[in-house]
Amino acid sequence: MSNSPVAPAKPKSRAWIILKRIGLVIVTLVLAAAAVGVIYQAYGTYRDARKYPQEGRSFDLGPDFGNESLNMNCSGQGSPTVIMDTGHGVPAVGWDFVQPEVAKFTRVCSYDRAGYGWSSPGPMPRTSLQVAKELHALLAVSGEKGPYVLVAHSLGGYNVRVFTGQYPADVAGLVLVDTSHEDQISRMPPALRQTMTKVDKDLEQQRKLFPLLLFFGIARWGIEREKFPGLSDEYQEKVRYLQLQTKYIDASASEIENFDESAKEVHAAGNLGDRPLVVLTAGKNPDAKDLPKGVSMKDMEDFHEIWVNDLQLQEMHLSTKGKRVLVSDSTHMIPFERPDTIITAIREVCDAVKNKQ
Question: What is the predicted pLDDT for the residue at 213?
């Protein structure tokens, strides 16, 4: 056995000690930021839930639909009853600037599709046929009386056209507010079509990351920085609260991922017969600053020409009693920018339905 003494450990360099301390500070700051984010999200959710209670009533669709429940908000009296479906990504409160005025002259209901607003998640995939079946079940269990005047914005147009094809006796008339057309993707300029493909991929990525981003308050911080001109802060806070939910991200992402499948279902649904129909078309292009990356103003203008003078006119001709109104001073978001035009169109269709009866 050697009796030689053990060599003493070399003292750590000053630089190493400083780096270690810096590392500990960084880790501490990251953990503190994560804790602040969790608290920020938890408090925001608690505050919003108290500030924005459910608008409407939940209806259980029964065992055939996995006991999912949909929220429906009805107001007013009279006939025909108007049923309103929002565009992609917008809960039923997207009709807040339309519904109160319509309720002054007839019965009107807005509803949250599965996964939206105060509705529970629904089965995947989220196609227009699935949405139409759920809406039919909702109307049956709610006791609302048809035939209805269906009003839809954007992607909601797919849903109400498929609903009409599936349940023709339940539909008396329609108002289509700058609604999606089943051939629109194939008619887009290449750059715009590529952007749509990228949106699909981005949504799938967001769907995977969202629970984590939501838990740590990152999603809330990001969405609270977005502002829609012309809308009150209070209203935008309500919409953000309803969008900051995992069920909403899952549903809205699935709707876009299955856009092509829903388009096929719309093709199969056929035309609208002789039902009174008003098609509202946005006549204003988005500002250049709002264009998706890689899309030029010329791309958007070229497609807008096709949209206004071809695709939307095709929708008008879905009914032998169709009418098109160009809303020249509004972009696609007509429910926010020119709700009065929607209210007028609904009144016109309701009057036509009454005169037809």
Answer: 54
